[in-house]
Amino acid sequence: MAFELPPLPYAYDALAPYMSAETLEFHHDKHHNAYVVKGNELLQGTGMENDSLEDVVKKSYNGGQGGGLFNQASQHWNHIEFWQWMKPNGGGAIPGELENKIVEDFGSVDAMKDQFVQAGVGQFGSGWCWLVLGTDGKLAISKSPNGVNPIATGEGTALLGCDVWEHSYYIDYRNRRPDYLKAFVDNMVNWDRVAEIFGNAS
Ligand code: MN3
């Protein structure tokens, strides 16, 4: 299927002051759109034109040997999910079943959030940090370079991911990536969405 840029699920200024309208306009309208446009160019002639986006990501990853198409396709998937992983007045309470699982596997919600932030801080250069429901049935935190995601690696289901490319935070936080990640987990995450993905996967 041809890649299509989905509209942001909220207004550009809906996540302020944690993520500004300027950041969301550039990030969605320029960066995400570029992955869509470039991805559609690279998709031509691959034989994957009718595949789902998930299948394009898996096939084009090619065990880590994936090139241009993988980068565009994975970043397209990552950003579709990323917009939905945030909401106005985000953060706050985590739905019960997911909260119980987090406490079971991490000891506490704070411990999970702390590991998530540390993964994002520790990702050298561009990439993502993730909360994953692993194929072993346990929750885990991971990080990945560039556009690599849990679909590509097959490590499990991505319940939550945060974009740590500089374009995601530099306007609002300059070089303070830890502050951006902290604001993400405490004030931007749509935990209902995370719980919905967890419910579907478990
Ligand atoms: Mn991005």
Number of domains: 2
Alpha carbon gyration radius: 16 Å
| Major sheet characteristics | 3 strands, antiparallel
CATH class of the largest domain: Alpha Beta
**What is the strand arrangement across the widest sheet?**
2-1-3
Overall 3D form: globular
CATH architecture of the largest domain: 3-Layer(bab) Sandwich
CATH topology of the largest domain, anyone?
A: minor pseudopilin epsh fold
Task: List key phrases describing it.
single chain, Helix Hairpins, minor pseudopilin epsh fold, 2 domains, three-stranded antiparallel β-sheet, 11% strand, globular, binds manganese (III) ion
Overall description:
The protein has 202 residues and is mainly alpha-helical. The chain folds into two domains: 21-84, Fe,Mn superoxide dismutase (SOD) domain (Helix Hairpins, Orthogonal Bundle), CATH 1.10.287; 96-201, 3-Layer(bab) Sandwich (minor pseudopilin epsh fold), CATH 3.55.40.20. It has helices at residues 21-43, 53-61, 68-84, 96-106, 109-122, 150-153, 170-173, 177-188, 191-201, and strands at residues 127-134, 139-145, 156-163. A hairpin with a 4-residue loop joins strand 1 (127-134) and strand 2. The longest helix has 23 residues, at 21-43. 40% of the residues are buried. The mean pLDDT is 97. Manganese (III) ion binds at residues 27, 31, 79, 163, 165, 167-168.
